[in-house]
Amino acid sequence: MIMRLSFVLCLSLLCVAFCAPRSIISRPHALRSFQVNDNRNEGTCTYTLSVRTSCLSTSYTRDQISLAFGDAYGNQVYAPRLDNPSSRAFERCSTDTFQINGPCAYQICYLYLFRNGHDGWRPKRVTVQAHASSYYAQSQPVTFYYGTFIPRGVWFGFNHCAAHYVAPS
């Protein structure tokens, strides 16, 4: 009886030490080997992007901002240039909304931003909402939280796709 009690106590202590839930909040990272699939003309699905620029960002940016996102099965949407200096996009404390057409994807699980220029830019968050098409169900909106300046000349973002296939490199 004491042996069983000792075993249960040890097992409980191990579970407390190793079974505790872990945070899935991650920080964006640079991905130098990332390759985009330039399938802009193959699009049959529409996505709404909501980009919130941090109040800690520069007042505005003239930098070129590109974006790529996709699912765990290799479906990728690429926007080669979201910025438009004449539209005053990406000003401090602002939210910009874009409609993008691209290949249909299942649940979006990765998103990377690319910045080219000298002004700097600090997004707070990017939300992607896929709209229903004839053969894909509408997926849940997904938000990627940045809160840091995007480095120049490198894809920078998140991959929450687990061990599934993600974008050829």
Key attributes of the depicted protein:
Embryo-specific_ATS3; signal; four-stranded antiparallel beta sheet; 31% strand; Lipoxygenase-1; 169 residues; PLAT/LH2_dom_sf; mainly beta; disordered C terminus
Put the structure in a nutshell.
With 169 residues, the chain is mostly beta strands.
Question: Describe it for me?
Answer:
The protein is mainly beta. The chain has one domain (29-159): PLAT/LH2 domain (Lipoxygenase-1, Sandwich), CATH 2.60.60. The protein is 10% helix and 31% strand. It has one helix spanning 2-18; strands at residues 29-30, 45-53, 64-70, 76-79, 95-102, 110-116, 123-130, 142-145, 156-159. Strands 1-9-6-3-4 form a 5-stranded antiparallel beta sheet, with no helix packed on it. The longest helix is centred in the N-terminal third of the chain and has 17 residues, at 2-18. It starts with a helix and ends in a 10-residue tail after the last strand. Residues 1-21 form the signal peptide. This is Embryo-specific protein 3. Keywords: Signal.
